[in-house]
Amino acid sequence: MSHFMTQTETLHIVGGGMAGSEAAWQAANMGVKVVIHEMRPKVETFAHQTGNLGEMVCSNSFRSDDDEQNAVGLLHWEMRAANGLIMQTAEEHRLPAGGALAVDREPFAESITAKLKAHPNVSVSYEEITSLPTEGHWIFATGPLTSTQLGQAIQSETGAEALAFFDAIAPIVYADSIDMSQAWMQSRYDKGETEEERTAYLNCPMTKEQHEAFIDALLAADKTEFHEGETAGYFDGCLPIEVMAERGRETLRHGPMKPVGLTNPHQPDEKPYAVVQLRRDNALGTLFNIVGFQTKMKYGAQTDVFRMIPGLEDAKFARLGGIHRNTFLNSPTLLDAQMRLKSRPNIRFAGQITGVEGYVESAAMGLLAGRMAAAEILGKTLETVPQDSAMGALIHHITGGAEAKTFQPMNVNFGLFQPVEGLKGGRRGRKDRYKAYTDRAKAAWSTWLEQFS
């Protein structure tokens, strides 16, 4: 590693995926010399096919391109406004996909690679980085398939608890889609010092008949299999609910669905047979996760089964459950607001390893990390990314807004935005509400970008 030490003012970026490529582009355009360190094609991953930068692994879609009614579309808009490499190149290799932005992935990655290699401030070095450097400016954007050795180095720096190798994801529901005439807020045995803690959980009661029907549906539902290279040794806190149910029909009633310590104010005389609990998932209280409900059910099956839960008949999901191989940091505890590792501020993290989910979100965090690192090298002070922008909502969520205890990778969604005052909630007001969010975000982001011109 020693031969890098002389060039302290070079920015080193580890990983040439969406986040690393975008970070390199942004920093290079600010006049900073950048070296991208990419281990492929020398060191393979089980998902990548080539050594190209910006290779798309799982799908060829950047999801909705609607920048007025969709949070991902808004993120597209913000990245375009910042001269984003990923968005500009996606546009050039766009495929018809309704309202979504889908790309022809091979020429897309070839084009990303060519543009970066042609940039006078960018060079690419093909080798694996296996440790966390003590000097120089670094961004680690190694993604969900971070190599084993580097994963171990990060783990020894951050502590075993702080790096997860499996996503055991419980489904997340929008608070305003839950029927509160059936559900109620209460912590078991009214535990907690404050009223907020005594009402931290949202409870959905089940009769015996409802419970039996739910278990039947759970056992019959379509499940996904593990891919090669991601066989899960389930650790007990993360058993999929269907595996628990297979161990016995009453297992869930003695686990996450136990009905003890709770009184249903809608029917105070009837003891529920089972209770499904949801816990607040973000500081704003707009998202709730279904406690203990990680699952390998297929997405369509999840929606059908979870809507059998009383109070969730019309639930809208911010994300569905899953369990898969994914290396990510507990960012709310480890990263500062500039995405630097608190214990080693010469290192930033970006992309999916920071706990954002999806190509667009990963590239967006790369865009911010690249600009922040370049500004630091150039001795500039940047204003805080405005929380009202999609970029700001996302970075705020991963560096502090999310619950550290239950932190799971998250897509951008309007549940992460601070509510706009004076707008009606619920389904009817949604169109106006989303337009208000996106208008406010565009103004905030445009103002933030002005400091670079």
From TrEMBL:
GO terms for biological process: tRNA methylation; tRNA wobble uridine modification. It holds the Pfam family GIDA. GO terms for molecular function: flavin adenine dinucleotide binding; tRNA (uracil(54)-C5)-methyltransferase activity, 5,10-methylenetetrahydrofolate-dependent. Its main location: cytoplasm. Residues 11-380 form the MnmG N-terminal domain. FAD binds at G15, G16, G17, M18, A19, G20. One of its GO terms (cellular component) is cytosol. InterPro entries: FAD/NAD-bd_sf, MnmG-rel, MnmG-rel_CS, MnmG_N, TrmFO. Gene3D superfamilies: FAD/NAD(P)-binding domain (3.50.50.60). Belongs to the MnmG family. TrmFO subfamily. This is Methylenetetrahydrofolate--tRNA-(uracil-5-)-methyltransferase TrmFO. It catalyses: uridine(54) in tRNA + (6R)-5,10-methylene-5,6,7,8-tetrahydrofolate + NADH + H(+) = 5-methyluridine(54) in tRNA + (6S)-5,6,7,8-tetrahydrofolate + NAD(+); uridine(54) in tRNA + (6R)-5,10-methylene-5,6,7,8-tetrahydrofolate + NADPH + H(+) = 5-methyluridine(54) in tRNA + (6S)-5,6,7,8-tetrahydrofolate + NADP(+). Keywords: Cytoplasm, FAD, Flavoprotein, Methyltransferase, NAD, NADP, Transferase, tRNA processing. Catalyzes the folate-dependent formation of 5-methyl-uridine at position 54 (M-5-U54) in all tRNAs. Its cofactor is FAD. It is found in: Cytoplasm. Its EC number is 2.1.1.74.
